[in-house]
Amino acid sequence: MNDPILEAKNIEKWYGPTPALRDMSLVIGRGEIVAVTGPSGCGKSTLLHCLSGILRPDQGSVQFQQRDITNVSEATRSRLRRTAFGVLFQFGQIVPELTAVENVTLPLQLGGSRFRDAAVRAQRLLDRLGVGDLAGKRPGEMSGGQQQRVALARALVTEPEVLFADEPTGALDSLAGEQVMVELVRLAGDHGTTVLVVTHNVQVAAYADREITMRDGQLETAGQVTVAGEAR
Q1: Quick one: the chain helix, strand, coil %, rounded to 5?
Q2: Burial group, residue 84, by CB count within 10 angstroms (0-12, 13-18, 19+)
Q3: Residue 62, beta-bridge partner list
Q4: Looking at residues 46-57, what average pLDDT do you find?
Q5: Regarding beta strands 162-166 and 194-198, do their DSSP bridges make them parallel or antiparallel, or are they unpaired?
Q6: pLDDT tens, 17-32?
Q7: Run of H or E including 35
Q8: For the domain that residue 166 is a member of, what is the CATH number?
Q9: How many structural domains are present in the chain?
């Protein structure tokens, strides 16, 4: 494994009396693509949300680049998600009133970039993802696969160090889902981005360097790092 970039140490998360994560520990190396799999309700998405700072664990700690981010302010965690982290959700969650290029520029503008400069960068990424011709279109004028590519562009436009993807192909047909994963892996590799992808789809998990399995809020197996389908 490469140098650790993200680490969960004995984290727990409860929803009322129900445990979602139980004494969960995990280390992710810089540049790794890790798939988190397991049955529905096992805590996969909760783990992703805790690691990305969307949720705060009830116990334990999360470290990013050896810095504890568990108890930092909400403003600091939001800033991390605008700069060092990118998040891609199952349904994209792009803003329906905005065009594709306006959606992609949002993280840059929130960071202080001028729209004109942000739009140039956004257009370049949309072109790479094969949806550059949709820059002026709104989500309602796009297919589900096209919307997810726009959402991927928005998640990657800041060139984050870690991309968190929560069932990124769950709302797509198999062809569109495969296209999104090919593009995600290619762009992540170009920028050395670490990827944590939550999925129940074995075809999606096959794109990862390593697959880890969860069950009942705990790590069942940490998997092996693989190259071209061979364990190492």
Answers
A1: 35, 30, 35
A2: middle
A3: 8
A4: 95
A5: parallel
A6: 999 999 999 999 999 9
A7: strand 33-37
A8: 3.40.50.300
A9: 1
Distance CA 23, CA 219 (A): 9
Strand boundaries in 65-208, DSSP class E: 67-68, 85-88, 162-166, 194-198
C-alpha torsion sign, points 28, 211, 45, 152: positive
Show the tokens assigned to 213: 């399995």
Calculate the CA 58 to chain-centre distance.
22
Contact status, residue 27 vs residue 1, Cβ threshold 8 Å = yes
CA angle 66, 67, 68 (to 5 degrees): 120
Residue with more model confidence, 102 or 89: 102
- Does 49 map to a domain? yes
> Is there a domain that residue 14 lies in?
yes
- What mean pLDDT comes out for the span 154-163? 94
Cα distance between residue 30 and residue 222, in whole Å:
16
The sign one gets for the Cα dihedral 190, 77, 52, 3 is: positive
Residues 145 and 172 sit within 8 Å (Cβ to Cβ): yes
Tell me which residue range forms the domain holding 46: 4-219
Contact between 87 and 55 under an 8 Å Cβ cutoff? The reply is: no
Q: How far apart are the first and last CA of the chain?
A: 10
CA atoms of 65 and 4, how far apart (whole Å): 7
Q: With respect to residue 224, please indicate whether it lies within any of the assigned structural domains.
A: no
User: Which among 46, 44, 22, 23 is positioned nearest to 34, based on CA atoms?
Assistant: 44
Asked, for residue 96, whether it belongs to a domain, the answer is: yes
**Neighbouring-strand partners of residue 157:** none
Helix axis angle, 144-156 to 100-110, nearest 10°: 20
CA dist 50 and 57 (Å) reads 6
